[in-house]
Recover the amino acids of this structure.
């Protein structure tokens, strides 16, 4: 019989390996093995009364209790480590164990005994049991049914605070945070803070069917809230909502909600906080105590279980945290703008009367049509009715109007001629409002579509010869009259040309007749 307890107690007193071996009657090799295993598994003095040689042997060498059966021994450490890997199950490990047993001419344990022995080992010696939950696989999230409160400094009234809870089912490590609302921004920000607290991301997140996470959930279709879906994509995780009225789908967080309601929310019932920040500071102190409370039936606590058994399996956080955005729909107005919170943003005019998706963040408004990016604007704040218009979104005739400035108007007139330049300068000087003057010049500029530069310059010259106060309407009248006269003159000239005989007259001889002799 190996005196495990005495070996470890003598080692704790500083006795040399040679002295321990001599005192216990065991070899130095065995003494070294026992001390190394005890150090690796965290078994230190002093020991409780129940921790006798048999207890220590089962703790250090759990396989020994199975060796006398004549069956293929089980490597519990190997089984526990393999179960942490994706898609590895006890069924697969038992199948491999059976194949190894046959190769060694040993009798394997049945699957039921295999599971029972591993469960007994994990429950006694490990912080987590990996049969149902793999490390780093799932994060379950929900709102606590109980509420906390803060006190309004001005009125002394109690204001409700809602507590968000996130739990890792494998290690049972939990995160909690109080918010003043259960709206979408609070829901998303709480997720971001939970990922930061855990220091990584799970493969799957399991929420309830509240509107902030799920828009539609039937047996045939699941439609996620667009913002929630975008956050999950940013963290490279999958959202798998719990089935409607199926709390067992997220049993871990349901259990944690009840425990947190007792050990955190109820524990703060007599604590007075005057802001949500103060409340969260107190809440996180209680949360730290909660995660460090020892398990009642096994060694360790939630935090140590996470550090030892689950942290390694989390995916790394992205380089930058998710920046919350909100999705809405809008209809493009006839003026090729959309209305978002009483502010107006332009989109290409080709999409007038179309329904578009709008992504709102703190500083940007991004517009999509059928998942295709259309445009983005800097978000407007302040007075309602502000307009953000991009020139390329306008029809051509609108671009012409918007482009009107005194400098551009004069530049255009110079390109037409001196008379047009004189008219434009007069219009700019004569109107009390620059805007009215530019509107008149814009009407004159539109004449380019129907008349040549020569015709416009000629009309301006004729008007200036008649009056020192030219108007655009008078110039338009002259352009019409000149055009009409030009058309009439062209018609007269055409008739004169067609009436002139330039043909050849054939004689009678051409048609077979005789030429008259004179």
């Amino acid at each position: 019989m190996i005196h495990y307890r005495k070996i470890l107690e003598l080692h704790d007193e500083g006795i040399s390996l040679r002295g321990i071996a001599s005192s216990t009657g065991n070899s130095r090799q065995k003494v070294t093995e026992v001390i190394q295993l005890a150090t690796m598994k965290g078994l230190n003095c002093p020991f409780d009364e129940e921790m006798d040689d048999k207890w220590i042997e089962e703790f250090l060498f759990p396989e020994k209790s199975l060796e006398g059966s004549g069956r293929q021994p089980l490597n519990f450490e190997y089984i526990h480590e393999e179960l942490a890997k994706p898609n590895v199950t006890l069924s697969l490990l038992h199948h491999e164990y059976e194949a190894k047993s046959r190769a060694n001419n040993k009798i394997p344990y049945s699957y039921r005994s295999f599971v029972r022995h591993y469960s007994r080992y994990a429950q006694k010696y490990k912080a987590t049991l990996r049969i149902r939950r793999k490390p780093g696989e799932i994060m379950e999230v929900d709102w606590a049914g109980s509420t906390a409160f803060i006190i309004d400094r001005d009125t002394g009234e109690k204001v409700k605070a809602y507590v968000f809870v996130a739990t890792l089912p494998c290690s049972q490590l939990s995160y909690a945070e109080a918010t003043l609302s259960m709206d979408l921004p609070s829901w998303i920000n709480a997720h971001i803070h939970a990922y930061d607290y855990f220091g990584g991301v799970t493969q799957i997140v399991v929420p309830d069917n509240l509107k902030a996470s799920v828009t539609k959930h039937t047996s045939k279709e699941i439609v996620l809230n667009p913002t929630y879906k975008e956050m999950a994509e940013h963290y490279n995780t999958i959202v798998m909502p719990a089935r409607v009225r199926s709390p067992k789908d997220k049993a871990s967080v349901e259990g944690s909600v009840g425990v947190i309601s007792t050990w955190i929310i109820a524990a703060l019932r007599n604590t007075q906080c005057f802001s949500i920040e103060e409340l969260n500071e107190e809440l996180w102190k209680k949360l730290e105590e909660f995660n460090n409370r020892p398990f009642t039936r096994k060694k360790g606590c939630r935090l140590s279980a996470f550090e030892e058994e689950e942290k390694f399996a989390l995916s790394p956080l992205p380089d930058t945290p998710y920046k919350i955005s909100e999705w809405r729909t809008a209809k493009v107005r006839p003026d090729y703008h959309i209305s978002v919170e009483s502010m107006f943003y332009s989109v290409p005019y080709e999409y007038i009367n179309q329904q578009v998706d709008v992504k709102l963040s703190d500083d940007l408004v991004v517009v999509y049509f059928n998942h295709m990016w259309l445009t983005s604007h800097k978000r407007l704040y302040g007075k309602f009715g502000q307009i953000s218009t991009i020139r390329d979104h306008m029809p051509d005739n609108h671009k012409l109007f918007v482009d009107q400035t005194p400098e551009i108007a004069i530049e255009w007139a110079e390109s037409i001629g001196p008379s047009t330049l004189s008219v434009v300068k007069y219009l700019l000087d004569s109107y009390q409002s620059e805007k009215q003057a530019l509107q008149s010049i814009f009407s004159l500029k539109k004449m380019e579509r129907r008349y040549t530069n020569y015709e416009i310059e000629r009309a301006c010259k004729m008007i200036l010869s008649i009056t020192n106060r030219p108007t655009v309407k008078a110039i338009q009248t002259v352009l019409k009259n000149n055009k009409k006269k030009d058309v009439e003159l062209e018609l007269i000239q055409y008739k004169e040309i067609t009436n002139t005989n330039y043909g050849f007259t054939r004689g009678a001889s051409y048609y077979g007749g005789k030429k008259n002799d004179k």
About this structure: The CA atoms of residues 71 and 107 lie 5 Å apart. The chain has four domains: 4-125, 138-313, 326-398, 405-499. The first helix runs from residue 4 to 12. The mean pLDDT is 82.
